[in-house]
Amino acid sequence: GSVVASYPYDDSPTHKPTGVYSKSADDEVFRYLAKAYASNHPIMRTGTPNCPGEEGETFQDGITNGAQWYDVEGGMQDYNYVWADCFEITLELSCCKYPPASQLQQEWENNRDSLLAFIEKV
Question: Which catalytic residues are annotated (predicted)?
Answer without folding.
Answer: 92
